[in-house]
Amino acid sequence: MRRLVLSLLGFVGGVFLAGCVQFSQSHDTSFLPAASHPEDVHLLLKSAPDPYEPINRVFFNLDKSLFTYALEPVWSGYNAVVPKKARTGIRHFGNNITYPVRLTGNLLQGEWANAGTETKRFLINTTVGVLGFSDPATEKFEINPANEDIGQALGKWGWTTSSYLHVPIWGASSPRDVIGGAGAIYLDPSSWFYGAG
């Protein structure tokens, strides 16, 4: 418990310090063309049912403020401090460690070949890719990922339509994907460490 509290305090402190970072560099976007859309764009877009519109608007505005005033400065500070190669390695490691989520999503859909592909990718990236900090499965062996999740499995089982739901921090989703994501939390090894100690 003590480690968790210290970790949270360190994270919150880092967020506040990263929020203090200022960048004087501004980007000139005047050369970009103005956005335009056809008059009949509404005919091209299929809208999702939105019975939760009032709460979705509240959560969207909350996210907009959170991203603008907290997460974007942290992300900018992270990008300024951590070299691109290290960020790529961290992203690869995070993707590699969530192998159980993708494996389960493939197995629940009966995608046996894709489950095998994900297992090959995990073994190659964990060994040759040094714990997954690089992705030789894609780069050297040309084994592409088979990204499936529990929400997609629920869709294959018959839950095909779902309402639009904006989840704070997660963003645009649906009740089906929220339930799938909740199940994936227990499969994600990174979530196992929060209960330890």
Describe the protein in words.
The protein is mainly alpha-helical. It is 59% helix and 3% strand. The chain has one domain. The chain is built from ten helices and two strands; from the N terminus they run ααααααααββαα. The chain has a two-stranded antiparallel sheet. The longest helix has 29 residues, at 53-81. It is globular.
Sum up the structure in keywords.
single chain, 197 residues, mainly alpha, two-stranded antiparallel sheet, 10 helices, 59% helix, globular
Shape: globular
Cα-to-Cα separation, first versus last residue: 5 Å
Range of helix content: 55-70%
Number of helices: 10
**Beta strand count:** 2
Supply the helix-strand structural class. Answer: mainly alpha
| Average pLDDT level | 82
**How many discrete domains?**
1
Low-pLDDT runs of 5+ residues are: 14-24
Query: What topology, given as strand order, has the largest sheet?
Result: 1-2
Order of helices and strands: HHHHHHHHEEHH
Beta fraction: under 5%
